[in-house]
Amino acid sequence: MESNRRHLEDGIVRDFKVNLSYGRYLHLDEILNAQHPVSTPEHHDELLFILQHQTSELWLKLVLHELRAVQRQLASDELRPALKGLARVKHIQRTLTEQWSVLATLTPSEYAEFRSFLGTSSGFQSYQYRTVEFTLGNKDRRMLSIFNDDPAAHAMLTEALEKPSVYDEFLRYLGRHGYDVPVELLQRDVTRPWEFREDLVPVFVGIYADPEKHWAAYETCEELVDLEENFQLWRFRHMKTVERTIGWKRGTGGSSGVGFLKAALDLTFFPELYAVRTEIGAPRES
């Protein structure tokens, strides 16, 4: 055997006239030819910029796939598979967050070479990202107008707007399992963005006061907190990468840029799950 060369085993499939190949299964011709730089002359670093956003969109597609399953599972009282789905989403979120470190290698001078060619295209227009926000409860009907020229994207967002969020489904699950969730929350207009409800906090105080007794609900609460924290870390890395690359310039899509992204850090999905932490172990008034 030649040194430094692996033996090609006889059983390895070589004929793909009939057999399904890796490339055909994954449609690699379509994927690997979906990068079309617009800079003239073509700038070396534009491929990085395109691939960063394309891979993010693929991961967001999987996040939505998992979160939709979580919604269905919670609605059917299938808590264990719902928790598995949330755990998978958390791993995807970590991957998405770490990707910013790759884009951060794009220096301001390098990005300036092709940024003007992007026109008004912007990550702000990512309908999958908006759908994730809607699915988690950060709903805003005004966002639909951005996608009036894209019927499929508009329909996806509208569906997410009109469905109970993951949090809505969790609260309904709690209501069906004997927890004293205020009835009006179980019957609320789910197209409205979630707003903090003080009267919901005692429900979570009871769960956190005796984790062993309420383990299923307790574990789900913590999974949701993990998910929100990961989302906020993603938002923060996004904001810092933009600041590092373009400073305080306006975004290509018309936003104020860093200032707009920084404001998103104040948005929350599950505020009562954070508020309960103030109550745990707090001294009781006599």
State the main characteristics.
mainly alpha, 286 residues, single chain, 0% strand
Molecular structure report:
The chain has 286 residues and is mainly α. Helices cover 57% and strands 0% of the residues. It has 13 helices and no strands. It has helices spanning 22-26, 28-32, 46-75, 79-103, 108-112, 127-136, 151-162, 166-176, 183-186, 201-209, 215-246, 258-264, 271-279. The chain is globular, with a radius of gyration of 23 Å. The relative contact order is 0.11.
- Overall geometry comes to globular
How many β strands by DSSP? 0
Instruction: Give the distance, in angstroms, between the N- and C-terminal Cα atoms.
Output: 84 Å
Helix content: 55-70%
CA radius of gyration: 23 Å
**Strand percent estimate:** under 5%
Order of helices and strands: HHHHHHHHHHHHH
Rounded average pLDDT? 95
Structural class: mainly alpha
Secondary-structure map:
Layout: H1 22-26, H2 28-32, H3 46-75, H4 79-103, H5 108-112, H6 127-136, H7 151-162, H8 166-176, H9 183-186, H10 201-209, H11 215-246, H12 258-264, H13 271-279
In short:
The chain has 286 residues and is an all-alpha fold. The protein has 13 helices and no strands.
